């Protein structure tokens, strides 16, 4: 092997070594800064209906006071009956104040009360075991509805890799003009969480209109945290 070949070979090996160092150091560089909120996605397969939920909670920039929150839910019977398709899809912009409080504004749509712009307030509390989000909004249209929404999770560690996963989630829409119930639901979850994966038992208790027509759904849920 001549001198020129040896030099070229050493240059190639050095280039590969530098590339390897670059790839090894990239994850550490990518993880710098505050952690980004994950995007939880959940499916529940009940005795009456299938259910899907996705939560998007993002800041415009890591240090911004402005953010976006959307908790979208969809459910339908397995028989694919269009009249039994349910959707609740609020999209809220929030402006953080102090001690977990924020102002919110945006829009909401669901199949029972329709579409409306909304405005209100939000409070968030979170630590290692607890997450609590409460939102009060007022519909800015002729319906004069008020909506109270909440998500409350308790996730204590059972082992280094496993947590208990429990959640209570509700929505209640009330007509202020006529004093009647418009739409509400209560969702209950109990199971286990291993890193990004969660699974267990679930119950969705839905009510519709002034008569509070009741549609329960019981089954199994699976969830994943997309990072």
Automatic annotation (TrEMBL):
Endpoints of the signal sequence: 1-30
Domain of life: Bacteria
Keyword hit for Signal: yes
Keywords: Signal
The name this protein goes by in its record: Secreted protein
Organism expressing this protein natively: Lunatimonas lonarensis
